Structures are given as structure tokens and as C-alpha cells.
Automatic annotation (TrEMBL):
GO terms for molecular function: DNA binding; DNA-binding transcription factor activity; pyridoxal phosphate binding. Keywords: DNA-binding, Pyridoxal phosphate, Transcription, Transcription regulation. The keyword Lipid metabolism does not apply. The gene is yjiR. InterPro entries: Aminotransferase_I/II_large (IPR004839), HTH_trans_reg/aminotransferase (IPR051446), PyrdxlP-dep_Trfase (IPR015424), PyrdxlP-dep_Trfase_major (IPR015421), PyrdxlP-dep_Trfase_small (IPR015422), Tscrpt_reg_HTH_GntR (IPR000524), WH-like_DNA-bd_sf (IPR036388), WH_DNA-bd_sf (IPR036390). It comes from Chryseobacterium indoltheticum. This is Transcriptional regulator, GntR family. SUPFAM superfamilies: PLP-dependent transferases, Winged helix' DNA-binding domain. Gene3D superfamilies: Aspartate Aminotransferase, domain 1, Type I PLP-dependent aspartate aminotransferase-like (Major domain), Winged helix-like DNA-binding domain superfamily/Winged helix DNA-binding domain. Residues 3-71 form the HTH gntR-type domain. The keyword Ion transport does not apply. Pfam families: Aminotran_1_2 (PF00155), GntR (PF00392). Transmembrane segments: none annotated.
Length: 475
């Protein structure tokens, strides 16, 4: 898959707006001027300007041209949920059932599955490369591979990480059957049943389920809209609790899409090293950034091996490619034993597929298209939510990843809301599934991994009008 041709000039305009070279009201070059300068077709230039208009940084004034428009910073709330000091997993089994309820009707529009859809999966590329692997490797891919994974693949992953400043020792890497297995191995390497860990909140329900199955206790650390993972909150709980690990997603946190700053990442590593606490970092969305360069990982700042970073190709390539990896740091021996007990090796055909894609740079070419398409869908969906839902609702703009985190006013009865959405053939993920507590009972997650259609926009409009009618009712 190729980049959009118009990016050759839209990226320049976006960078100039970001750096203050272009300011609100500045007139941009005409379509014909851009066409001549960048040797593009009129269609490509028009598509590029349509993209900038959709993002809200450019306005099209008929018969006048395109102008920069810089909106005032949006009003971002800063709600801090109140958590119990230590929370067990008593009620989570009931909550996680909410994530498996689904209307199997083909008419349903799903905004609740955080995985690439047919729109984003490079099907021809994957199938062609798999056929090449089968022809080249023959029956060898039917045998066991090393329990830790292919040495070639581990070297490729380590080499790729160095491109964004992350030094990984390939000998400390373990290839896993997806990201959740990597998390399971990491947690099992540094904790025992009954231990207390700190975990970001809200937190994706699959991570909470792994924690629950390991019978760990949890202190939830709030993720704030403006600053992300609350490091001061973590510092406070460390004074009174024996925390055995910290679990978080610093890059495009699921469900909020928040990006943790490099300063905060570095401070977190310092805390981990001084207190000798392992950090388990989920970097599954790190490659899905919308602007600028790929963000650093927490591992970038780790010099003593306290950070265990894991990721997967299922979110960036195809959900059926069950192949992840874990950088074990100083905990390699424990992690290796646990991985061996879970199975001899990850499917060889998936490992060889990724070796091919990484060796030929096909994976990174795919990512460039993938990211841009995700961003377009994100902007379209966010604009519709903010347009059709009442102003009392809040939808946080993500910097990357798959999800928008929404919040409805307390007056809205959420079970009734979800029932109405179900009747409209729309599926969201309830906020209750992102915590052991009830802190997010009026929140919900919206995924933009699938094509945004006129039909889906109409249904969102109907749901937004329903919420408005509830707010208009007398108390």
C-alpha cells in the first residue's frame, strides 16, 4: 500500500501551521499552484485540501480559496476519579461479559472492536507473502521453532526499535502468541498471587482480565486528559504500599488515545529504578501515531533493565496474525521458563511472514497508509460526535491509536442508552469494563477502525438527538 500522494504538500502546510509560520487567516496556494509545484493531478490536490478541511485547520471560501483557520484550544476537563486503595477482582467477571454481548446482525455498525477491519488489512500483500513463504520454506514451517522465537525475527525487531531510539537486546526478546500472552508472561515473571500492582485507569478490559486470572490486587492510577498517567498519584501510593509492578500504555493509551510525554516517561523510569519496581509497558499502539514521528517508549530511558516492553502485529497488520513480542529486560530467565510452559513456539508461518515483511520494508510502507486512513476516520467520527451529541457531552481527541473516549452527563441512564444504541444497531464499549470500580459508568469507548459511512453518521445523529431529549426533560 502506498502513501496518499497529497501528503507531499499537506504535511508541509501542517508543519508550517504547527511552527507558527502560517497563522489563522493566511491564504494558501491555489490548487493550480500546488499542482505545478508538486507535479500532482488536480484530483490529488483537491483531495489534499479536503483532508486539511476535514481536520479543521483549513477553511474553503468559495471563489476566494483556502485559508488557515486555527481554532482556540478545546476545553479539556480534568476529572479525577476516586479509587479505593486496593481493589480486588470480585465483580469484574460480570463486567467483562458486557464486552462479549453483540448483535450478530449484518446490519450492526460496530464501534467496539479495536482491530483492523477489511478496510485496513492489506489482504493481497499478506496472502501473497504467505504463499511465498510456503513455497520457499516448504515443510520446515510445519516443525517446531525455538521456544523464544526465530533468531532472525528477534534481530529484526531489535534493529527496528533502534530507529526510534529504543535499545533492545535481541537475546532478551521472546516471540509470543500475541500481546496478551506477552503481558501474562511479564506479570507472571515478577508477581505472585495476592501481590499488589499499579495499573493505569481507565484500562483495557483484556488487561484487567489477565490481572484477575493471576489473582493480583490492584491500585488504579488515574490517566488524566491533560497530563496522562498520574505520576504524583503513583508516588503517593508507593509510600504506603508494596507495589510489585506498574502496568501502563504510554503511547496512545486505550481508551483515551493520550500520549505520555518523554519527560513523564523518564521520570517514571527514575521512580522504578529507585524503588526497584518493574514497569510493564504496552506499546501495541506505538506505530499508530497521526502526526510527527514515532513516539519513544519508556524502554528508551531504561538503563538498568526494569522496563519490560511488549507489543504485537495484530493491531497494525491483521487480527488473525497472532504474533507478539516481549522485551524481558533483567527478567529474561523467569520469562523464558514461563513462555516454555505455555507452548513450544509461535506458529512458524506467522514468524516467517513477518520476517519477509520486515526484510522488504513492506510492513512500514503499509503502516504509512494505515496511519493516515485511521486519522481520516478518527477526524470524521469525532466531528460527527461533537456535532450531533449535546454540548454537555465530551469526546476526547486522540493523538493516535484506535479509540475515542466519550462521556455523557450524569442525567443519562446508561443501561437505557446502550439499549437504545442496540436498537439502532450501533455497538459501543461500556466504560464500566475499563475499571474494577464504577468510576467510568458514564463513559464509553468508540472505535474508528472501520469505514465511516453515511448510514453510520445518520444513526449517530439519531442517538445524539436521543441524548439531547433526555437532557431536555424536566428534573
Amino acid at each position: 500500500m502506498q502513501n496518499f500522494k497529497y501528503q507531499i504538500f499537506t504535511s508541509v502546510i501542517e508543519e508550517q501551521i504547527k511552527n507558527g509560520i502560517l497563522v489563522s487567516g493566511d491564504r494558501l496556494p491555489s490548487i493550480r499552484e500546488i499542482k505545478e509545484k508538486y507535479k500532482l493531478s488536480i484530483t490529488s490536490v483537491q483531495s489534499g485540501y479536503d483532508y486539511l478541511v476535514m481536520k479543521g485547520c483549513v477553511i474553503n471560501r468559495p471563489r476566494s480559496g483556502f485559508f488557515v483557520i486555527i481554532k482556540v484550544n478545546e476545553d479539556i476537563p480534568e476529572d479525577l476519579p476516586t479509587f479505593s486503595p486496593v481493589v480486588s477482582n470480585v465483580d469484574f467477571d460480570k463486567k467483562v461479559r458486557l464486552t462479549s454481548k453483540s448483535d450478530k446482525s449484518s446490519e450492526q455498525i460496530s464501534f467496539n472492536t479495536a482491530a483492523p477491519t477489511d478496510l485496513l488489512v492489506p489482504q493481497k500483500l499478506i496472502l501473497r507473502k504467505m504463499q511465498e513463504v510456503i513455497r520457499k520454506k516448504g515443510s520446515s514451517i510445519l516443525r517446531y521453532y525455538s521456544a523464544n522465537g526465530s533468531e532472525i525475527l528477534r534481530n529484526q525487531i531489535a534493529a527496528r526499535a533502534t530507529k526510534f531510539g529504543c535499545k533492545i537486546n535481541a537475546e532478551q526478546l521472546i516471540i509470543t502468541d500475541g500481546a496478551l500472552q506477552a503481558l501474562y508472561i511479564a506479570l507472571s515473571s515478577v508477581t505472585q498471587s495476592g501481590d499488589v500492582i499499579a495499573v493505569e485507569s481507565p484500562c483495557i478490559f483484556s488487561v484487567l482480565e489477565v490481572i484477575s486470572n493471576l489473582k493480583l490486587k490492584v491500585i488504579e492510577i488515574p490517566v488524566q486528559y491533560k497530563t496522562g498517567f498520574n505520576i504524583d498519584f503513583l508516588k503517593d501510593i508507593l509510600t504506603e504500599n508494596n507495589i510489585r509492578a506498574v502496568v501502563l500504555t504510554p503511547n496512545f493509551h486505550n481508551p483515551t488515545g493520550i500520549l505520555m510525554s518523554d519527560e513523564a516517561k523518564e521520570e517514571l523510569v527514575s521512580i522504578a529504578q529507585s524503588n526497584e519496581i518493574p514497569i510493564i509497558e504496552n506499546d501495541i499502539y506505538g506505530d499508530l501515531y497521526f502526526d510527527g514521528e514515532r513516539p519513544s517508549t519508556i524502554r528508551n530511558f531504561d538503563t538498568e533493565g526494569w522496563v519490560m516492553t511488549y507489543s504485537s502485529f495484530s493491531k497494525t497488520l491483521a487480527p488473525g496474525i497472532r504474533l507478539g513480542w516481549l522485551n524481558t529486560g533483567r527478567f529474561f530467565e523467569q520469562a523464558e521458563r514461563i513462555k516454555f510452559s505455555l507452548g513450544r513456539s509461535v506458529a512458524p508461518i506467522f514468524q516467517e511472514l513477518m520476517i519477509q515483511l520486515l526484510d522488504e520494508n513492506s510492513y512500514d510502507r503499509h503502516l504509512r497508509f494505515f496511519r493516515k486512513q485511521l486519522e481520516i476516520q478518527c477526524v470524521e467520527l469525532l466531528n460527527a460526535l461533537r456535532l450531533y451529541f449535546p454540548k454537555e457531552c465530551y469526546f476526547h481527541r486522540p493523538h493516535g491509536g484506535y479509540s475515542i473516549w466519550g462521556r455523557l452527563p450524569k442525567k443519562v441512564n446508561m443501561p437505557d442508552f446502550y439499549k437504545f444504541c442496540e436498537n439502532q444497531k450501533i455497538a459501543f464499549t461500556p466504560g464500566d469494563t475499563f475499571s474494577y470500580t464504577d468510576a467510568y459508568s458514564h463513559h464509553f469507548r468508540i472505535i474508528f477502525a472501520d469505514r465511516i459511512t453515511c448510514e453510520s453518521i445518520v444513526r449517530l445523529k439519531i442517538i445524539g438527538e436521543k441524548v439531547q431529549s433526555i437532557l431536555d426533560e424536566p428534573n
